[in-house]
Amino acid sequence: MTATANGSAAAPAPSGPGVAAAPRAAVASPVAEAAEVVLALPDLYGRLQGTRLAGDFFREQVVSDGYGACDYLLSADVEMQASARYTGNYGDFVLRPDLRTARPLPWRNGTALVLADAVDRDGTPVPVAPRQILRTQLDRLTARGLTALVGTELEFLVFTESYREAFAGDYRGLRTASRYNSDYALTGLGELDDLVGRLLRGMAGAGLRIESARGEVHPGQYEIVFRYAEAMDACDGHVFYKTGAKQIAEAAGRAITFMPKFDQGEGNSCHVHLSLRDASDRPVFDRDGGLSALAEHFLAGVLACAPAFTLLCAPSLNAYKRLSPDAFAPTAAAWGTDDRTRAVRVVGAGPSLRFEHRIAGGDANPYLVVAGIVASGLYGIERELPLPPPGGDGEPLPRTLESAARCWRGSAVAREAFGDTVVEHLAAAADAELAAFAATTTDWERHRGFERL
C-alpha cells in the first residue's frame, strides 16, 4: 500500500457489491487541463466539503492514490463540531475521486470540481457517507433489474444584501429581491434577473441540463429545475448546483438561502420526482393509463414508511416549521393524482408517469432523500403492500425533529434497509442539532422574559 502525498495511506480501488467502479486509465476531460481541481465530499447535510488541489498534483497522484481527509467530516454538524457519538481520533479516511463527476467551474477560471467517495485505508467504503448510503439502496434496485430516474426542484430566496452584510446584521432586516408573490410572474423580478442569469449560464457551462426557471410564491423566491437523470447523477448535480449557486451569489454581492423556513412566509422546498425503468429501459410505473401493480406497491411502501423516514427529508429544527398546517407543505402520508396538497403527487402519463415526493425542504440532503424513497418503495414491492385510496388523511408526519429522530430510531424497516450503523449515525446528527439548540438562548426568550418575568 502506497501513501498519498498528504501522508495518508492510499486506498486500493475496491470492487464488489455496493462499490462504484472508478475509472483510472484516463483523466476525465474537465480536469485534463485544469490548473486547479476541487476535490469535494458530500457531507451529512449535502454540503460539499473538500480541498483545492494543484491540477498537476491531482492528475499525477490523487487520481490513482486518493487524498486523505479528516474522518470527522462525516460526523460534524453545521458548525463543524463533531457529534458526541464520534469515537474517532481525528485520523484520515481517503477521498477517492469519482472522475465521472468532474465538471468545470465556469465562474472560477481554470478550475474543475470532482466529487469523491470516502473509503477506509483498505478501500472499504465508509458506510455512513451519503453517496454510499444511496448506492447501497440503488444496488438493491439493480438486483431487481430496476433503475431509478430522479429530478429535483429546489427553491431558494434571494436578498439584495451580500452574505457579509447579512451576517453583520445578524440575518435581520434583510430585503428580498422582489416585493411580492411572483409565482409564474414575468414582471417584478428585475432585481433577480442578473443573478439568475449568472446561475443559468454557470450551470449550463458546467454541463448541467436546465429545464426551467421561474419566480415563486415568497417575495424573492426562485426555482431552477434541471432535467432528470439516473438517481446518483441527479443527486451529484443537485449538490454541485447548490454549492455553485452560493459561490455565484457571493461573487455577485447577493445572499441566497435554501433554508426551509426563513420567516413566516412560504418555505423553500425540495420536491423529488422519481420513476423506475426495467433492464430494457422501459418505464414500469404506467399500465393502461393508470398505475402498474409494481407502482402501487412502491407507492404504498413510500407512504407506509414516510413518518419513520421523515428525518431523511427534514434534518434540521427549522425544517419542521415548514411541515406545518397551512404552509403548503405535507403533514401526513397521503397521495393524490396531480394533487399538490399531498405528500406524494402522482404526475405525468405514459412514459412520463412519476411520483413527486413533496416532503423534503431546501436543506435536505438529496442522497438521503432518494435513498429513503427507494428503500421504502422496495419495502412496498417486497411485501406487495396494497395502495390506500387517494386523498384521505394518512398517518401524520412527525411535527418536530425530536419526534422524527425517535420514529427513525424505532423503525424496523429502516434498520433492515440501512443497517444499525447508518440509523444510529443519522439519529446522532439529529441529537446534535437538538442539543445545540437546547443550549442556545433565543431572541424569543429574551423578548418574552427580559423585563416581564
Short recap of the structure:
The protein is of the alpha+beta class and about 450 residues long. The chain is built from 13 helices and 19 strands.
Description:
With 453 residues, the protein is of the alpha+beta class. The chain folds into two domains: 95 residues, Ubiquitin-like (UB roll); 303 residues, Glutamine synthetase/guanido kinase, catalytic domain (Creatine Kinase, Chain A, domain 2, 2-Layer Sandwich). The radius of gyration is 22 Å and the shape is globular. The N and C termini lie far apart (65 Å). It comes from Cryptosporangium aurantiacum. Belongs to the glutamine synthetase family. GO terms for molecular function: ATP binding; glutamine synthetase activity.
Number of strands: 19
| Helical content (DSSP H or I, runs of 4+) | 25-40%
Our Rg estimate from Cα atoms comes to 22 Å
Low-confidence stretches: 12-25
What is the residue-mean pLDDT, rounded to a whole number? Answer: 92
Tally the structural domains. 2
What structural class is derived from the secondary structure elements?
alpha+beta
Question: What is the helix tally?
Answer: 13
Describe the main β-sheet briefly: 9 strands, mixed
CATH architectural grouping of the largest domain: 2-Layer Sandwich
Strand content: 15-25%
The CATH homologous superfamily of the largest domain corresponds to: Glutamine synthetase/guanido kinase, catalytic domain
Please state the overall shape, judged from the principal axes of the Cα atoms: globular
Q: What's the CATH topology name of the largest domain? A: Creatine Kinase, Chain A, domain 2
Report the span from N to C terminus.
65 Å
The CATH class designation of the largest domain is Alpha Beta
GO molecular function: ATP binding; glutamine synthetase activity
Organism: Cryptosporangium aurantiacum
Keywords: ATP-binding, Ligase, Nucleotide-binding
GO biological process, one term: glutamine biosynthetic process
